[in-house]
Write a structure and sequence with these properties.
The chain is α/β, with parallel strands linked by helices. The chain is about 50% helix and about 15% strand.
């Protein structure tokens, strides 16, 4: 039988603001529609986060013992549904019945464990010289975004929602689009057990939902298990997610990605192929510790140094700046690290010139600085 799923936002079950839905078919019988779920939008996510951010404090102020009791009740509800849930996992996800039963019996144990943790949110005290009391306390971070995969659609979410709720946080939960039915079963059990609607939201959907969640600055923490594609949602710096530029042409974007990986390749090669121990002063520092003065180094010009004096730094510059989509946070990081390296290079050049005199000056005149110098080199 097809199950109609919904988002849980604002303390009630609702559809997507776009009115669009997606279907999940039984992988063993593709003509069977197991569930139909809302195709949520970034606006739905914003509404869910806003509501939880404004209302989770009621849950945070609930006594830990009560939070623990609610999680235990949720565990009991799921334990009573274990066989039915196992059959739904088989139909929706495709796992064997034996494996599904292991998962449905393990999940209640997870919630019971985290219920116990709600009673162990202890702080620390520290001795002082004046006899005053110095202590630390643990407080909820606020809104927690939970993104989970399809392969353990009940067990893994329980290990994310359980501890977040035990600590008094509010949760916005995005289950895998492959298993919306099972993700919703966990939320239903938690709500039935007594978790208030202001502390828990459920938003179904695909990548747009996940991206909206991890870039919302009202989210205090993100917990996820997922694919490489899911991890790429974090390439942008969450606190400053505004896009400064974005290259949409696929050919141009691929070229920029090649430059990005070329930069890290240069970093790797230069680290292993160039005698940094000799050139960057580490050998001098080692000899100074032993009371000896290093002789002038042989300032060779191996492969990379034929065109650029600082291949390691050049590789980092490429890696920092070659971004098809540059967020404000990424740009700030690139500018800061580039400035730091330029200042470091300036002082390194000064010190090497002072230490090795004409030897380094002659070497320096034969190579470029940061930007590769092509063409004939000076002898």
């Amino acid at each position: 039988m097809t199950q109609l799923r919904g988002n849980f936002i604002g303390g009630q079950w609702v559809g997507s603001s776009s009115q669009e839905v997606f279907e999940r078919h039984n992988p063993a019988h593709l003509d069977e529609v197991v569930s139909v779920a809302p195709e949520s939008t970034a606006g739905d996510v914003a509404h869910a986060v806003e509501y939880v951010a404004e209302n989770y404090r009621e849950w945070a102020q609930t006594a830990p013992e009560i939070r623990a009791d609610i999680l235990i009740r949720a565990a009991d509800i799921l334990a009573g549904q274990a066989d039915a849930l196992a059959e739904e996992i088989v139909r929706e996800e495709g796992k064997t019945l034996a494996e599904a039963r292991i998962e449905t019996r393990r999940t209640p144990q997870n919630l019971r464990f985290f219920a116990g943790e709600a009673l162990r949110l202890t702080g620390e005290t520290f001795p002082t010289s004046d006899g005053s009391m110095v202590l630390t306390v643990r407080e909820p971070v606020g809104v927690v975004a939970a993104i989970t995969p399809w392969n353990f659609p009940l067990n893994i979410p329980s290990r994310k929602l359980g501890p977040a709720l035990a600590a008094g946080n509010g949760v916005v939960f995005k289950p895998s689009e492959v298993t919306p039915l099972i993700g919703q079963r966990l939320v239903e059990a938690l709500l039935e057990a007594g978790v208030p609607g202001g502390a828990l939201s459920l938003v179904h959907g695909h990548a747009e939902v996940g991206k909206a969640l991890v870039t919302d600055t009202r989210v205090g923490a993100v917990i996820l298990t997922g694919s490489v594609e899911t991890a790429r949602l974090f390439l942008g710096w969450r606190p400053i997610p505004q896009v400064v530029w974005s290259v949409t042409n696929p050919i141009a974007a691929n070229i920029i990605w090649l430059l990005f990986w070329a930069g890290w390749g240069i970093v790797l090669l230069s680290t292993f192929l160039i005698n940094h121990f000799e050139l960057f002063g580490l050998q001098q520092a080692w000899l100074n510790m032993r009371g000896r003065r290093a002789a002038n180094p042989e300032l060779r010009q191996p492969f990379f140094y034929r065109w650029v004096a600082h291949p390691l730094y050049s590789g980092f510059f490429l890696a920092f700046w070659a971004a098809p989509e540059m967020t404000a946070g990424h740009l700030l990081l690139a500018v800061g690290m580039s400035t730091f390296m330029l200042i470091g290079i300036r002082y390194e050049e000064r010190d090497l010139t002072a230490l090795f005199g004409e030897d380094y000056s002659r070497y320096r005149s034969g190579v470029g600085m940061l930007i590769p110098r092509f063409g004939r080199r000076r002898a």
